[in-house]
Batch of 2 targets.
Target 1
Amino acid sequence: MSREHYIDKRYGKLVVLSCEDDNKHCKVKCDCGEIESKLYTKLPYRYQCRKCSYKEMGMKGRKKYDELDNILIGRYNAMINRCTNKKHSNYHRYGGRGIKIDSSWDTKEKFLAWAKPRYVEGLELDRINNNGDYGPNNCRYVSHKENCRNKTAALANKSNTLPIGVTYCGTRYKAQRSGNYLGLFDTPEEAHIAWEKA
Ligand SMILES: [Zn+2]
């Protein structure tokens, strides 16, 4: 579709100069002289260039995030996603198990205030109690190696308390008697019953 009809149109302080090759953006010139690229679809909602917007917002302006903030906000959003989005591939390990986000982290600002002084590149957020929620009382930053070690230890622990004939296997429970594989079960109890019957 041709976007030519946009040329010379005015949106607030912006005038459309030309169409960009991607057919999604156009070059606009602001009354202040600034030239920038805008999405056609956003034109009705933009009336000035970015510089003018920042100037207008001045000191009271929107909080600007630095690079580290953005990394941590990304992690924060991923955490919320795991806990609340049923379509997330790992939802069953988080939200599906009742893992929630503590109210002390109900905004990204609160999370940033906690995480920023603690986070160092390469570290991962670890829940101390694997069945507990995400929050300042149950979280710490650890290295990837340490995180794996904790997970393995948690699994070993889980295996130690399992009924006879049952071992933990990924996300399910394996029943086995005298070397004979009896199947995978959703709960250790079911696996144990299979063992008893064998
Ligand atoms: Zn401007």
Target 2
Amino acid sequence: MEGLVSNFMDADHAYLDKLWVGFLGEENNPESSSELLKRFKRHLLLHIELEDNFLFPLLNSHINMGINPGLLAMAKRDHRNIIKLLAMVEEAGLGRDIREIKAASRHLHRALEKHRLREDEIHYPVCDFFVEPEEWNSALSRIYGKRLEKDAREGNKYLEKIYG
Ligand SMILES: [Fe+2]
Ligand SMILES: [Fe+2]
């Protein structure tokens, strides 16, 4: 899907994927995987903040024709579940039981996949229709500001579509 919001959020999901795959690759090694999990968590919370505090409330206020007033509630419920599952992965990591870590990560992996599919099919394409570039850019720099600066410093190109 092409669009202002879809482009950015798809790239952001891909970035989260990269962090998550990095963690999965180290699952057998709780020592180094906990650091990778922290990086994944930091960015996931930022992504969720952008959705819960800006994007989806805006989406709800634009869809007041009774088509689907529950889009924000649905996403928030998913996010709460994802954060709960992530806490279980962290807890398993503390116990250093590799079987537990693998089982907890599988649950989170499935929840992320399902959630992302829904956002890609419904939430983001609808947002593409009405989010104005100006309000989008100001929300991004408000919520992602430090992250974007860090990307620029490190030459991370994934946001260039928006700022390039
Ligand atoms: Fe989400
Ligand atoms: Fe998302």
